[in-house]
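Record type: monomer structure entry
Structure origin: computed from sequence
Chain ID: A
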Amino acid sequence: MTARPPASAALPAAPLLVQGRSGGLREVVGRRFLLSLLVRKELRVRYRASVLGLGWSYVKPAVQFGVYFVGLGLVLRQNAIGDYAVYLFGGLVVMTAFGEAVGNATRSVVTNADLVRKIYLPRELFPVSSLCVAGVHLGPQLLVLLVGALVAGWSPDPLGLLALVGAFTLVALLALGLGLLLAAVNVLFRDVENVVDLVLMVLVWTSPVLYPWQRVADLLGPDSLLLTVYQSNPLTVAVELVHRGTWAHASPGNAASLPPDLGPRVLLSFAIAAALLAVGQLTFRRLSGRFAQEL
């Protein structure tokens, strides 16, 4: 009669897992169904008992656009820029999407404190779900932008469409990297979300959204180091990519107003975004084991 092996030899030893620490963004990819549940939950909570529901995705940017267009375009005569409505709204779409994604991601872990304390799931799901919700709200705004550009005379071209895809890919990478970093730090220091709100409030003025980039060049000088820093800001690059994709071909002469050397700065911006994403993911993973304790 053959001897049976010990139970410990029959079953392979399972690797030890550090509870509270996930496999990072790769694990989020494998939890797509759970991610979709979190996105639906966030949308349902946000629009609970709301008459307009997702219609607020149109109302809020429309009001913001109207205020800036009247104040700057009509009162301060910024509409000397050709097709100023398309120029303005293109930049606002970028800033609105980025601001919503980063602001919500910063609060995402604290907002879901009950889930963090009670069950284990990849903590990265919370910032990523905030990014997805911002993407849902981006859809209607982008549709309005494209329709407005078509009315203004926009003729789509392959390079312009590629610029649009590149712009919002860049915004998504930046928002995710910053969102992971800020969400983790916000668990330890709740002042972070208030600082983020202040920064996002003034961020629209740090890129050529309300004014042309030539105004900054005239102020700082064409060979200024500060101008180089300004133009290398990844959000500035994202705004200019949207302008290249829509506004530049709305009327003859608009394309000539785009900044030079946009291509190299696009590559630099994606490198910055990739580095920021790596830092954000590393910081988030290192601090995620303390989330339940701190919350």
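Annotation 1: Residues 158-188 form the longest helix (31 residues).
Annotation 2: The chain is about 70% helix and 0% strand.
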